[in-house]
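Re: export button greyed out
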Amino acid sequence: MSLVSLEDVRKSYRVGDQEIRALDGVSLRIEEGEFLAIIGPSGSGKSTLMHLLGCLDTPTSGRMEICGHDLSSASADKLAEVRNREIGFVFQAFNLLPKLDVVRNIELPLVYAGVPPAERRRRAIEVAKAVGLGERLGNRPTQLSGGQCQRVAIGRALVNRPRILFGDEPTGNLDSATGEMILEMFRQLNREGKTVVLVTHDPDVAAVSKRVIEIKDGRIRREYVP
Amino acid sequence: MNFLICLETGLREIAAHKFRSALSMLGIVLGVSSLIATMALTAGIEKGTRTFMQQIGGLEFVSVQNKEISNAMIDFWNLSPGRTLTDAYAIRASVPNVSHVSPEMSHGALVASPYSSERKGVRGVWPDHYVVARHEMAAGRFLTQLDVDQATHAVVLGDGMARRLWPNLEPKDIVGRVVTLNQSPFVVVGVLKRYEREQDKRMRAILAAQGKDRARSGAPARGRMAGRWDPFRQKNESVLIPLTTMFHEFKSGQFPDDSVESVRLDTLSFRVANLDYFRETLDQVRRALDVTHRGVDDYDLETREEWFDRMEASISATRLSGGLIAAISLVVGGIGITNIMLASITERVREIGIRLAVGAKGRDIFFQILIESVSIAVIGGVIGIAAGAGLIQLLGVVAPSENPPLMTFDSVIISVAFAVLAGIVSGIYPALRAARLDPIGALRYE
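Workaround output, generated via the alternate export path:
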């Protein structure tokens, strides 16, 4: 049983009279413990694919199963639940809440999972220490560097012990040295058994993965091992 | 989502935009404070009215009035003896739910002390009058059955009357003095309490504080209070003697076969013991009086009911108009909150997107926004209650002669409830809009 399985998944948007096929028949399997990179130029449909895999959206047609949940036509609440419990998401722009400190940002998924406050805080602090922010618990994102922000985001993605960790250009906003460190964190997490999926247009990022899928015009063009 | 987290997020958001939040609270503050003030004012008026109603005898008080006889009955008029003591005995004997009956005869007389004299209406009464008219003694005693049986020359004076007859004496020193009624000496056995309305009492207190105490003189206050109708005037001007004495001194001898029972009364009133059987009691009284009046329909029972109903109606009208003003303010305040919340969610689309991305459901966002708007409303409500309390104090200083406004616990509860309601109603639309945001679009929003 694959962790993720997509069968002939299509996604199209309507812009005015025009129908735009962002994904045009994608079939894909991701197994437990994989380190996958999805690459492609902008407009290729890789972001749409990422949104589907990240349970932020549902396909127009085709079958999509993630962690045993059939999400082909799931409700918004069902998606939210899967997002909350099975998936960790790391964004290019960090997407932290500026008014909350490090611990509160990290514990956010636990809030929506209904974890009691004391337990929430304990786990958030534990994770913060694990991503190397033990000294920065009470700081707000504005007081942190980009690399530290992305660590908070990784911490937030990990706090609910998800089965898959997604990264959408996670190094895009970072200088190369910091980006390198963040990538190393993803590799380390993968070595510890976490399934990691990165979306990028940077070949260097793709190079650290174990499998690369190249996507273009809404279809998978190529699949290779770097 | 956890309620406390929602609350905390909401409060942070309010604190982060203090001025904006304060502006949006303003409508609620005005609404709630006017609600509090209105309710306090009507509660004050209501209390004043009720006290007054109690003092003049309350609902239990019923008086028997003469009635124009109808043309069809005019030939039988002479058959009826009119209101006499026989009526009072009949009511007392046959209507168990009447606790006290007060027949009265009045006669004008020159009332004189060594210091002062004036013509006054003197009233002959039974001891029951004390209860029916709700008298209270300042000094001495009221007339007793013995006074009536023996037709003694005892007199009870109202406070105003007593103070004019002996301007320099306190009520307790007036008891035992002799006053003459048409040259016939009467011993003052008691002086009644001074009856006054709440506002008069406070007016007097204010005047006393200013050193212009007219309390001693017993004269009606001048200035602001002059010319006002004083419902207690008659009670304070009372000159009361036993009914039998009244008959023997002033009423007998007009007709050869006169007796105390056959002389017409000037007023006849009674007190109903248990109001639950009010209608039945009145019916029984009517049956008794039909016998004594030999079937002639020449009397009417006048109750305070209608009058009380009118007072209640005017109180509730005041309450309604005040409530309307408060309601309008609350609606305006609610619209203000809706407006601010819409602006606030537009500003926070990205935040909402992030929350959705980490697993918040639409309903979590909905409650977050709703709790925020309710928090604004409740804070506004609390400020409004404080402002309302201040307003009441201010009214007390600016217009002290009115019935004192009375802030009730109920009004606080009702105000908070209305503030919460306004917060919910005004928060629903923005909360729905926020909850319906699409996570991808919201995350991309700049």
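Chain B touches chain A at residues 1-2, 4-5, 12, 16, 350-351, 353-364, 439-440, 443 (CB under 8 Å). The button fix ships in the next patch.
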